[in-house]
Design a protein that fits this description.
- There is one protein chain.
- The protein has about 120 residues and is α+β, with helices and mostly antiparallel strands.
- About 25% of the residues lie in helices and about 30% in strands.
- The protein has two helices and six strands, in the order E-E-E-H-E-H-E-E.
- The chain has helices at about 40-55, 75-85; strands at about 5-10, 15-20, 20-25, 65-70, 95-100, 110-115.
- The longest helix is centred in the middle third of the chain and has 18 residues, at about 40-55.
- The chain is globular and about 45 Å long.
- It starts with a strand and ends with a strand.
């Protein structure tokens, strides 16, 4: 049986889970940048992803898949401005971006990733 490692487990969910050589994150939102621009929120979310990847002993070049939710698809370019500055050319993951309502007003971007560990 393969072990399951939980990163920052809470009562409702873990920040991330490692199983079978993969890291799965919860949806990550920007608490400090809440209410700010999608660009600023995306930058903060990506910083949090970097920290989670480091805790798991991996990095952004090993991300396999990213799911991104925006409250307004018209902000797609603003999100991509932060994303494009962050990803490593030639090491980009599969990715989907959709418009959706998020958990609370002020959160305008949420990202969830899967990565190889």
């Amino acid at each position: 049986m393969t072990d399951i490692t939980r990163i920052e487990p809470g009562a409702r969910m873990s920040e991330a889970v490692i199983h079978g050589g993969k890291l799965y994150t919860a949806g990550i939102v920007a608490d400090r940048a809440m209410g700010k621009s999608v660009f600023e929120q995306t930058k903060e979310v990506l910083e949090q992803i970097d920290a989670i990847l480091a805790k798991a002993g991996t990095d952004k070049t090993r991300i396999l898949k990213a799911n991104i939710w925006l409250t307004d698809i018209a902000t797609f370019a603003d999100m991509n401005k932060a994303w494009d500055a962050w990803v490593v050319s030639g090491k980009t993951p599969a990715r989907a971006t959709v418009e959706a309502n998020l958990a609370a007003p002020g959160y305008d971007v949420e990202i969830m990733i899967e990565a190889a560990v």
